[in-house]
Give the backbone structure.
Amino acid sequence: MARIASLSGFPEWLPVGRIVENTVLDRLRATFELHGFASLETRGVEPLDQLMRKGAIDKEVYVLSRLQETDPEASRHSRQLGLHFDLTVPFARYVTENAGKLAFPFKRYQIQKVWRGERPQDGRFREFTQADIDVVSQGTLPGHYEYELPLIMVEALRSLPLPPVHVLVNNRKIVEGFYRGVGFDDPTIVMRVIDKLDKIGPQAVSSLLESDAHATTAQAEACLALAAINSSDASFADQVYALGIRNSQLDEGLAELVQVIEAAGGLMPGALRADLKVARGLDYYTGSVYESVLEGHDSLGSICSGGRYDSLASVGQMSYPGVGLSIGVSRLISRLLGENLVTASRSVPTAVLVAVSEEATRPVSSAVAAQLRARGIPAEAAPSADKFGKQIKYADKRGIPYVWFPAAGSEPSQVKDIRSGNQMDADPATWAIPEEDRWPSIIVNV
Amino acid sequence: MARIASLSGFPEWLPVGRIVENTVLDRLRATFELHGFASLETRGVEPLDQLMRKGAIDKEVYVLSRLQETDPEASRHSRQLGLHFDLTVPFARYVTENAGKLAFPFKRYQIQKVWRGERPQDGRFREFTQADIDVVSQGTLPGHYEYELPLIMVEALRSLPLPPVHVLVNNRKIVEGFYRGVGFDDPTIVMRVIDKLDKIGPQAVSSLLESDAHATTAQAEACLALAAINSSDASFADQVYALGIRNSQLDEGLAELVQVIEAAGGLMPGALRADLKVARGLDYYTGSVYESVLEGHDSLGSICSGGRYDSLASVGQMSYPGVGLSIGVSRLISRLLGENLVTASRSVPTAVLVAVSEEATRPVSSAVAAQLRARGIPAEAAPSADKFGKQIKYADKRGIPYVWFPAAGSEPSQVKDIRSGNQMDADPATWAIPEEDRWPSIIVNV
């Protein structure tokens, strides 16, 4: 078991699991930076009023207090702080706060932990790592980002040891316009009910629509019919029109989604699919909304989600529209490790253990290790001058592939591949390590 | 100003500052991994009873509560959680919790944020990033780690754009044995007073020793005389003996420190210095203790500190002695950015901006950018099909060195170095970017 949690909802990994996680994070970062996204890190806390401004998840926030606050009145009157529950709200705050020092459109990625006080369950943690990309502009935001950003996420996810991934796209204007066209005054309630479709099924959704949104049977059926539409090309639009609902906001949304699906199809066929059941719980999305599917892992839910927001951040007359997606890294890693889908070739970075024949000659072994490190080969001297058999066992236990024996008297300097048992003369100044052995590698168990 | 903080004590960096920070963190990580340290990340929270077990900093802890805890009694009775204030206590908890699954001696590095509720002041934050290395063993820990770990930290710090750094070493056994030899029953009180020497000076320390530790004038003088001793070789031991105090614990400590200084001198001359005023506030150190000096930045205080602990972690009869050091990364970055000592060559990873002549040909520009990225060159298509002058300005504002003009009609594909103005024909499949331009680089202002 590579996953451990002594505190429910707060996962930690063993060293091998952490190597898998770091490999995943490194590859995500590499993709984001190749696409020109700047790294950003925001503080872990935000004033509570900032955190509660958007979304319906206020009850999940962890609030901070100082253990030995000497003046309780002072604490009550100062702005209370809470741990951030996502990276979008802090990013919006950062952008408006530093707008004068940033160049727009501003593209950033952010890989950080977030906290939610909800009841822990399989794949749902109280502390977890997210990897986000967002682009934010001043005033207006070009529409091409609405297909470019999800494609970058697909590219990033495809660099990982995962089954095929694709992103499902919908547009808030489609669902809002459609629901209004059907006769609902408050599309938000309908949206929240439809969001439960995958969990509770159409029958229960229909009942909820009738009880919570006062829908007629015909209205509920229309909403379910919309949610059932999906396609990998622009044909979804005709299916929607065939339902006979007309609304200008619906038309606008359909045109936008057609553009997104067609442009994405030209760049990366099959990566994005239109799926009109995608709703997303958060209030702040105003255009495209995204969820993703990891083939064969439906129970995991969406591992990458997001959308376009036009008014999350604004200062006076200036608004900062944006579009972004977020990968739930911890949930992904937890599944990869928990089902033993991937592991690492060793539990330490060390590629070469330099044996120590007696404590008096430790400086000789340390010098060999330093020579190897200077050539970019992870190396360390053995912890104790035990019998060589015990030193080899030290390497074996950690998966370190090579043990080095420094020259001693007439004995030449030698290196042993402890996997094959092959041992040969070698000079630390020139020995070439096979590139695949230099750093721990990821092993995919399929 | 690359440093910003809208919330006192919670620093954030602008994109250029974050590039500096990431470069620093990448170099630290590279050094730690070359030396075979495994990466580890522990959860951000610990049960309060765990956090308050060691050290005298209980009043600095941030305690968590859930915003909408429905049953206040439930929360009061469950184990309260606090944010960790360092990475040593969580590491000790992790080691004892997972001892059966780890291979000892276990060497790990850990780069994470920590939180302290203290009053913010220059260089002292409420949220900051630490970079720690520790080695922990089961039962006994070989003494060579007491010079190897601080040397690894010096190597890591020397890989950064910093003035010369060296580590000051003392040994708890020296000060405890000496204070006992002088006639104090409780060396801890003396140690805490001596720890203030740099801040308040010898006169005030002397008074405090007399008032708080009931020292005679002669005893106070002896303690100050010990604290004044330092050397880059083993000669400090003779200076201590010349003070005429005899104690077996003192002898043991001197022998250990002589070994540390001499072995370190053989491996990396000048990197470690014996300095007998180094005390360290935390209770859990039992052998070597370390502080560090950044030349020309005395006011910054120690940027890398630590020590050996024999009983921080234990389960039943089994103890887990360890030695570790911690770099205060945020404090260091804050100084580097605040005094404009370093900056980055650009504010985004992008090396090449691919111009877009009209929105209809965006796919052509996107394809060129994708071709460059596939060859490891960070590239993005321009956000809008503005006039080329405006697109070049977009690149210039971010420090992006190259603008690419895709082939159009009879016009060949060209790349322009916007710093020199040089423009030449180029093929995205073969164009070689100068290696120093591929990624943002660090510029040191001396």
